[in-house]
Please model this.
Amino acid sequence: MKAEFAIRNFSELIAAVPFLLGYHPHSAVTVVGMRDQVIDFGACFDLPPPDLGEAATRAEFGDVAATIHRQAPETVVIIGYGPSGLITPAVLRTAEALLALGMHIDDVLRVHEGRWWSYACDKRDCCPPEGTPCLPPDSVIATEATYRGEVALPSRADLIALVAPVDGAARQAMTAATDRARSRFADLVTESVDSKRLRREGRLAVREAEKRYRSGGTLTDDETAWLGVLLADPKLEDYAVDRAGPQEWRIRLWTEVLRRVEPVHVPAPACLLGYTAWMLGRGALARVAVDRALAAEPGHELSDLLHRVIGFAISPELVRRLRR
Model:
């Protein structure tokens, strides 16, 4: 994810990372790319399984380093989250893989239980052996991020929960609405409606949804179900993607549609959420949205494409330059 955080020291950097990712990392390693003392991007990855073989472990860290290298940062800071015995091997292997690609590492840090340590500095006055206290939750960095509307959820599991399907009465209502939408669609097909009219119906539904959310509104169950059924048409999905842009109201639109539609209709709104989040630099949200799409339909074409785009760390700015 990209974010415009101007950083003066490592304490501020550590305070900014959860807002950069969208959640507080645990038992993980984060690599932060910097350019002119400003955070350029952040990438977080889980620790490899302890029973993973040496060759596979080395390959995994090599893949991470290659992804970071493609972003071409001026310098990077590696931050591990967790106790020393768990984190130290991972951050040192990350540093080794990045150095092998000729990248400049500003420092390697570890964060645990409200304190941070540096692997590159042993000066007591700036890096005491007992660790340096992290900034409080109400620090200037946190305040600025919150003012900009950025959120740091407690964990990645909380981020995944943001795109989880609704349940209970809401799910029952959407199941009934989807049955009505399918009957409506079947009636149109039975009436020998040509494909152009069906496509017009779909485009109208997309534009109406955009208009509703742009003005702060929402869709009814029936409108959501109808949109979900229509988006099963790849051409309408392409139409919605072409209209997508980096606006926060689109995040709300496609999150709510994704959570409410029936499982068979998940891929299209999940991809639209993932694509919008990616354009906004919210890589972690984009990833969990695309994961939902792939889980629902492993062979979904747009899901596979977005999965590769995110995995190869292709930036929205690069795509915008290519399109121009």
The chain has two domains: 10-153, 162-323. The chain has 14 helices and six strands.
